[in-house]
Amino acid sequence: MNAAGTRKVGFDLQEGSDDNRFLVEAISADNPEAVVTSMPGLMRVQAPGRMVINRDSVEQRLGRPWETHEFQLAIVSYFGQIAEWDDDQIVIGWQH
Q1: What is the pLDDT of residues 67-78, one digit of tens each?
Q2: Residue 23: pLDDT above 60?
Q3: Which family is this protein grouped under (predicted)?
Q4: Which of 10, 1, 60, 61 lies closest to 34, judged by CA?
């Protein structure tokens, strides 16, 4: 939880892959409050309360089609709950 009382959501993914780097760039662009932290071998992306991952934004950076199920293959762990998941968007938030 941050000082304002909003619990953070986010995920960790392996560092070093161009695909993961572009994924993080897209998420950062769509979620201005997101913070990216590099750790040895991992990147942590977190935001207060809610994070949206848009297929279109990821595809623009990758330069190829991207299916939202590829997100599962990229992440090591996540915190928060998957509030929505369809072909165009993933939303991580808290239900409580």
Answers
A1: 999 999 999 999
A2: yes
A3: Belongs to the TmoD/XamoD family.
A4: 10
Q: Which residue has the tokens 């750790």?
A: 39
**1 in a structural domain:** no
Q: For residue 18, is it within any domain?
A: yes
Q: What is the number of domains present in the chain?
A: 1
Residue span of the structural domain in which 75 resides: 8-93
> Has residue 2 been placed in a domain?
no
Side chain identity, residue 21: R
Instruction: Give the C-alpha separation, 72 to 47, whole Å.
Output: 18
Nearest alpha-carbon partner for 51 in 77, 20, 84, 19:
84
CA distance 45 to 58: 15
The CATH number for 28's domain is 3.90.56.10
